[in-house]
Amino acid sequence: MKPLYLVAAIAVISVVINIGVLLRPKPVDKPHPVAAPPAAPAPTVPTGPLNAYAALGSYVAASNRIPDLDWNDAQFNAFAAGLRSCYEGRPVPFNDAAERLREEINTKVQAILGETGTGDDPLGLYFAKLRAEENVQRTDSGLHYRLTEPGHGDAPATDATVLISYAGRLPTGESLQTFQATRLKVKLSDVLPGLREGITLMRPAGKALLYLPPDLSFANGNWPAEIPRGAPIILFVELHYVSAE
Asked: What is the catalytic activity of this protein (predicted)?
């Protein structure tokens, strides 16, 4: 399996190229004598199977602070044109001006990362953005979670037997077959540490989003082939009930 960063990089280049094509202004033979030309429509987000690529592009752009660079449309279009030129075998030479721009961007991004306290740690940045933008909470262990339905009654103990349903995915949006279960009866002592802790924060009939850092999933053990080693795991969990056993 390709490393997560390589898969993400390939996908975001494809998405950015497509966006650049959509944003490319149409040639105009003559200037309009009265009114200014209408603004270009916003690019249409793909649906169906291609939507995952668009979501991946947005995730990678956000993770790399692309929106914080404050580029205007002309700058973004030039960036997209450079990607397309390289994709078509016509790379634009990297000159002194490009080197200065790269240094400016690096300086700005490092300043932003310094403010968030994540340094150059992409995993730390990912979780910092979750807390800032997705109303996600963090426990002392590093588990991140958001309760989407509160449920009722008492939360289960760490050694309880519960009936749960869950579905897992990667931050890139890819579904994980390893984490697909419907009304599964299981002892919490037998599940991953992050899943166990997350369920103890829930109440019967409750639902939650759990974001497991690698230390609370497979850590230094054997990782399933479909999951890049060290990747966060996102779980949609429903707690049906706590067994009386």
From this structure: [protein]-peptidylproline (omega=180) = [protein]-peptidylproline (omega=0)
